[in-house]
Amino acid sequence: MAFWNRRRSIDAMTAPHSGPALKKTLGWPHLMALGVGAIVGTGILTLIGVGAGLAGPAVMVSFAMAGLVCACAALAYAELSTMMPTAGSAYTYSYAVLGELIAWIVGWSLILEYSLVVSAVAVGWAGYATPFLHGIGIDLPLALTAGPHAGGIINLPAVFIIGVVTGLLLLGTRESATVNVVLVLIKIAALAVFVFIALPMFDASHFQPFMPNGFGSPQLPFMEQITGHPAVAQTGVMAAAAIIFFAFYGFDAISTAAEETKKPERDLAIGIVGSMLVCTALYLLVAAAAIGARPVSEFASSTEPLSLILRELGSPWAAQVVAGAAVIALPTVLLAFLFGQSRIFLGMARDGLLPRRLAHVSVRGVPAVVTVFTAVVVAVLAGLLPLDELASLANAGTLCAFAAVGVCLMVLRVRDPGRKRMFRAPLWWLVGTITIVGCLLFFFSLRPFTQTAFFIWNGIGLVIYLAWSAWNSRLAKGEEAEG
């Protein structure tokens, strides 16, 4: 079989192997917490302001659109992850269904996604940590709290928190998952405090005009040549949805924990679908309370919009509580995505698409080498780059992975309908279609710079694949029968 179409066998993939083993220590409560911890973070605590600035009060529609696409993607993930409960997530599913070349592109895009999510969340955490420290009498100089784009030298708080979370992950999966559960509860409690204070101040006039910047349209590069007019939609519901999409994904990190789950056939579906349902309801409630409490223009440009709203409502103590909870609990997102990134690396290294020494697992059952390597890379990005650019580019990688999962769901239902499925996505043809079409629309609603950067990243990836990975994979060397 040609190298671009080599596929791994699902049966071989799920069979016991003699390589480095990850410990099965996680149950569905840990997975639910991992998903909620990954999803509820910078997206609602910080990017709600960015989204509101793009769409106005219609950011509610943006949240609903992003939530719908992610819900369909979550159903697809739930079906595939229970069929193939191994580390690797969308990369692994693509390898078994779509072939090695597509799997490489998806894996390379996931590396982009997870790395930049960690960096973006670290920057968002620093945006809450700096004012929180100021509130307790600790002032850090601008040079150490902002990157070069904002007149500083390096965002030291962002670098610091990445180091702390990396140390926690190196302790072991079970230990870090237990800490994550506690931090997730703190984060949800903080959002409940916000809603409790903001909702009674609800003013329906803040929703008028509802859609001041229009619905917007995808930024399709070829439209400029057809119409003679620039096809750039920098604002509107679609532009906001493409950014707010960042606020919803994270459940895919659950699928990377498949190999460490005690009962993957049951717990993965509960974790993925359950965390999406909880977070969608929470997001819509928080967004409605925020817009109803204060006009969008007052918090759209803030790095800590929820705390700002509470201060404007005359509740500085609650603002400090939310900021403090963000400081304490936002690292759950870092933990989930650093966790997922190391498992993506592990899967690709096991398959020989990356150097196999990266697949080394420590005595504590942790892929320590890739965890530390990833931490160093994302710390540099977080220390130097702004939040919106990081979030936007991370979205591009995620959209690629989600679209691939939608395709895998549909192809596998047609190609192998009789294979045992512990969880079956309802209306699979509709779920797959919404996932694919929604991801494409969101991708072309991102900034042209982001789209270009994504293609450049994957161009670099293809060079690496053709020069090294295609000739060193396990399938290329005949170490495993093809599917």
Automatic annotation (TrEMBL):
GO-annotated molecular function: amino acid transmembrane transporter activity
InterPro entries xrefs: AA/rel_permease1
Topology relative to the membrane: Multi-pass membrane protein
Predominant location category: membrane
Keyword Transmembrane helix in record: yes
One CC-aspect GO term: membrane
Keywords: Membrane, Transmembrane, Transmembrane helix, Transport
Transmembrane intervals: 31-52, 58-78, 150-171, 178-202, 231-251, 272-297, 317-340, 361-387, 393-414, 426-446, 452-471
Location relative to the cell: Membrane
Record PANTHER family: CATIONIC AMINO ACID TRANSPORTER 4, INNER MEMBRANE TRANSPORTER YGJI-RELATED
Name this protein carries in UniProt: APA family basic amino acid/polyamine antiporter
